[in-house]
Amino acid sequence: MTVRKDDRLWGGRFDNAPDALFDASQRSFAFDQRLLPYEIAVDRAWAKALQGVGIFTETEVRQSLAALDKIAERAKSEPGWINKFGAEAEDVHHFVEKALVEELGPLGWKLHTGRSRNELVATDFRLFVIDAAAEIQHCLQALIKAFLSQAKANMKTPMAGMTHMQHAQPILLSHFLMAHGQAFMRDLARLQNASISADACPMGSGALAGCSFAVDRDVIARDLGFSRITANSLDAVGDRDFALDYLFALAGIATHLSRLAEDFVLFASQEFSYVILPDEYSTGSSLMPQKKNPDSWELLRGKTGRITSSLFGLLTTLKGLPTSYQRDLQEDKESLFAAHDQIGVMLSVAAGALAKTKFREDRLRAAASNPALFATDAADYLVRRGVPFRQAHDLVGQVLREAETQGKPWTELSMEDVQKISPLFELDFLQSPSVETAIASKVVFGGTAEGSVRLAITQLELKLKQLEKLP
Ligand code: ARG
């Protein structure tokens, strides 16, 4: 085998070995080995591209592809091998080159012709993000399905809809659940955007200037499943916008999970008692025997910090970097991997906890049945009799004040009481309001009337089915 000074990818012009601590801190193999399947796919495409420009013979390509397959196979079947053989590898790119040389001798050094780790890592990372986004889309779909089943199972349950955490108007519990469902549908679209933004192949960009061999970039891209190629080599090696887009999508999911968690933590409190926490997703107290704590939801809320911080972390790393590849960019991977893994778990825990939650219809209905929540409908009653809304609002305000003075719900005032305030109030004014009528009147698209909620459920189910049909 041709003699090289040492095994490093770049040792030729150096007299001294790197400082041991610096060397350990600059290596990325411990975490970027996760990119190995993508690295190997890119290597395969590159070997073929090099044949296209006459650098590799047919035999050399065949040998290289066989060796790459063998490396992939060994990495899968012999997990300990990667770290044993790769103990000296600086990064995943170095690892594969070392393994190729072990298999093929000097031919293993030939594959790096015309290319740079700068474009390799960008390409691998893009492929990772595309797969990662698809995986999280599946987890999200499972969570959205859990919302749909709970919404359908609780179709008749009213609850007190709130703004500012104050009881506002009655709504259906299903409407509340579908509100969360809609938010997570938007996250699906964000993941799709991240995937589109990652879907451009940098190979052929070289270290920064492009490739001096006229490789067919379109063929490489197609080989790897990309639908486009990047347009500027300098931009391509330094661009991590696709990673930002992915982290933004994950941060959106985490924020929505955190809001959901906050709702359920409150609903599980003794003051609300709207839900019965499932044992499977709760824990107890080591001191207080009566406690059942909503830890699954609290931890979902708490873990949001890590996800948003990985978005802020990458934004901060990228801020102030000059154009083109800088080694700082190596800091892009660890926390994105961690955020991705964490969100997958968070979504599955949320779906499980939601599916097993029991809603206390008695408590929910009781809160929704307070006549104070029909005050807006009472104003609408006057509007239907021709009173301008602001005036109607005032008159109903007076009715509520009278009820407060008498210490009873306004629906229990006498006809005399209300007619003193306005002769437009007739008997049905005191008799007709109910949770059911208040909810049933919100028939607009997107409203809380049962028909509207059912329509929203059907539409969302249809969208999910369409998404599932996509490859
Ligand atoms: N490990 C590096 C990264 O993750 C890729 C190697 C590029 N190194 C270099 N010295 N240009 O970004």
Task: Produce the secondary structure layout.
Layout: H1 20-26, H2 29-32, H3 36-52, H4 58-77, H5 79-85, H6 92-104, H7 117-153, E1 158-163, E2 166-172, H8 173-198, H9 217-223, H10 233-238, H11 241-268, E3 275-276, H12 295-318, H13 333-356, E4 358-359, H14 361-368, H15 375-383, H16 389-406, H17 415-421, H18 427-431, H19 435-440, H20 450-469
Antiparallel strand pairs: 1-2, 3-4
Helix pairs in contact: 3-4, 3-7, 3-9, 4-5, 4-6, 7-8, 7-13, 7-20, 8-11, 8-20, 11-12, 11-13, 12-13, 15-16
Report the end-to-end length measured between terminal Cα atoms: 46 Å
Largest sheet: 2 strands, antiparallel
Mean pLDDT: 95
Fraction of residues in helix: 55-70%
Rg, rounded, reads 31 Å
Strand content: under 5%
Which structural class matches the secondary elements? mainly alpha
Shape: elongated
Pattern of helices and strands: HHHHHHHEEHHHHEHHEHHHHHHH
Uncertain stretches of 5 or more adjacent residues: none
Oligomer designation:
single chain
Cofactors and ligands: arginine
Specify the number of helices: 20
Output the strand order for the largest sheet. 1-2
